[in-house]
Write a structure and sequence with these properties.
Number of strands: 11
Mean pLDDT: 81
Oligomer: single chain
Strand order of the largest sheet: 1-2-11-10-7-8
Structural class: alpha+beta
Order of helices and strands: HHEHHEEEEEEEEEE
Distance between the termini: 11 Å
Helix content: 25-40%
Radius of gyration: 19 Å
Length: about 180
């Protein structure tokens, strides 16, 4: 089980490393961090999907410090995303929930009244409901046509934990 916020922290680490390596300006970093932490539903691909995870090789004039920094960058990126995996966390949307105080019930769907809107034809207008209760969240399917699954198991109702993967129709969400 992951800690709440771990998915967004992992993506923020990628942004921080890219900024330190000169791939992002301060303004772009600030904008992307705002996207990452300012929204309940985050598209990781839109935040870090265009960043290269390849480490730069130090040139012949590189100092030992530059070589150490390049090696550290390579190890960080390998830890965050093995080369064959591409950019970590970009295969699904991240759904950030307030685990301390909770919110009111939240409806997930593609209809105009949904609190969490998913633009996907396999998602019902009112697909599922998230219910906060005593520092935890429960998801309830609302009789959707294509169902709701948690970690690969179709559910009618299930308690969620940070790191769970929820399938709403064909849309995959990582709970954070």
């Amino acid at each position: 089980m992951l800690d709440a916020g771990a998915s967004r922290d992992r993506l923020a680490a990628i942004l921080g490393a890219a900024f330190a390596d000169g791939l992002l300006s301060e303004q772009t970093l600030s904008h992307r961090l705002g996207l990452l932490f300012g929204n309940r539903l985050v598209d990781p691909h839109g935040v870090v999907g265009d960043l290269s995870v390849r480490a730069r090789r130090p040139g012949p004039r590189s100092s030992p410090l530059a070589a150490f920094a390049a090696d550290s960058w390579a190890r960080l990126m390998t830890w965050l995303a093995p080369p064959e995996a591409g950019v970590p966390g970009t295969d699904c949307m991240v759904l950030a929930l307030d685990w301390e105080t909770g919110d009111d019930d939240l409806v997930i769907g593609r209809g105009p009244g949904a609190d969490i809107g998913l633009d996907d034809d396999t998602v019902s207008r009112r697909h599922a409901r998230l219910v906060p209760r005593d520092g935890s969240w429960t998801i309830e399917d609302l009789g959707s046509l294509n169902g709701t699954a948690v970690n690969g198991t179709t559910v009618g109702r299930a308690r969620l934990r940070p790191g769970d993967h929820v399938r709403i129709g064909e849309q995959l969400l990582e709970i954070d």
